[in-house]
Amino acid sequence: MTLTQKFSKKLKILREVNNYTQEYVARVLDISQNAYSLLEKGTTKITLDRIEVLATLYSTTPAELVNVSENIYNGNSVANEMMHSNVPPTLSSFEKRMYEQTISRLEIDIEKLYNLINQLATSKTASQTETNS
After folding, report:
1. Phi, psi for 78 (deg, rounded to 5)
2. What is the pLDDT of residues 57-98, one digit of tens each?
3. Which residue in 33, 22, 30 sits closest to 53, CA to CA?
4. pLDDT tens for residues 113-130?
5. Domains, the chain, ranges and CATH?
6. Is residue 28 within 8 Å of residue 60, measured between CB atoms?
7. What is d(CA 38, CA 46) in angstroms, rounded to the nearest whole number?
């Protein structure tokens, strides 16, 4: 895998981990969604200015963003010798932060869903009580 392919794969993983759409990241970069798609595919090379913008978006440094010395495997950074083992891959501190942020957002969404379910259940119970009266 070339450096461009590794970096492109990293861009896609970071976008997905942060629950961003290609359209959103493209707007941040001030390019079209199609142009951003080509960056993720490795068809178009990225500029340093855009690397800086992406580093800010993902709360990291440009150096950490472009660090592709480790392979990306299922969203995790792993050493070459671990690629085909059953040992869970270790995450870099940056990837841990991204996953923690994603988990935190999902926990908030789950809490909102529980509240909606409770509201619906309460509403249904109230309407059934009125119907039976």
Report:
1. -135, 155
2. 988 888 888 887 644 433 444 333 333 333 345 666 777 777
3. 30
4. 888 888 888 888 877 777
5. 3-132 (1.10.260.40)
6. no
7. 10
